[in-house]
């Protein structure tokens, strides 16, 4: 089953709470600012690679980015890559 995580509002909140511009966060994550904008507007899902980069770059718990189903998927992903 292909499960996608759309967490644009939570991504934007994370970025703004850290006082970052889209350009600065995109640079930190190794993506373009335009791609980050699409993620923040739920036009693109969070990829596993982007989720892991978020967790390591900003020291956040992946479960904080999603709802219940997304939290379970994030936990499974983290366990698989541990």
Automatic annotation (TrEMBL):
Pfam families: HTH_31. CDD domains: HTH_XRE (cd00093). GO terms for molecular function: DNA binding; DNA-binding transcription factor activity. One of its GO terms (cellular component) is cytosol. Keywords: DNA-binding, Transcription, Transcription regulation. Coiled coil: none annotated. Residues 11-65 form the HTH cro/C1-type domain. This is XRE family transcriptional regulator.
């Amino acid at each position: 089953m292909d499960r996608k995580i759309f967490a644009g509002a939570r991504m934007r909140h994370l970025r703004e709470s850290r006082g970052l511009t889209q350009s600065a966060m995109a640079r930190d994550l190794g993506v373009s600012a335009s791609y980050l904008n699409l993620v923040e507007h739920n036009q693109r899902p969070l990829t596993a690679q982007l989720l892991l980069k978020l967790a390591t770059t900003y020291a956040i718990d992946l479960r904080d980015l999603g709802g219940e189903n997304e939290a379970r998927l994030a936990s499974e992903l983290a366990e698989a890559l541990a």
